[in-house]
Design goal:
By secondary structure, the protein is mainly α. The chain is built from three helices and no strands. The two termini are 17 Å apart.
Amino acid sequence: MAYLKLATASWLTPIYLLMVAITVVAVVANVLKQRKLSAQIVGGMVLVPLVLRLLLVK
């Protein structure tokens, strides 16, 4: 319940979460397509803060 309260704190918050979720999906798709390990690692490092923001961890 606390997540829903935070997710609907403002009318802009759901839009922000939707944008972050779309970005997460795009990054995951890119990581899965990459063949080079270094590119996959960079994608994973990008995913960590995005997922934390999606979960509204401050």
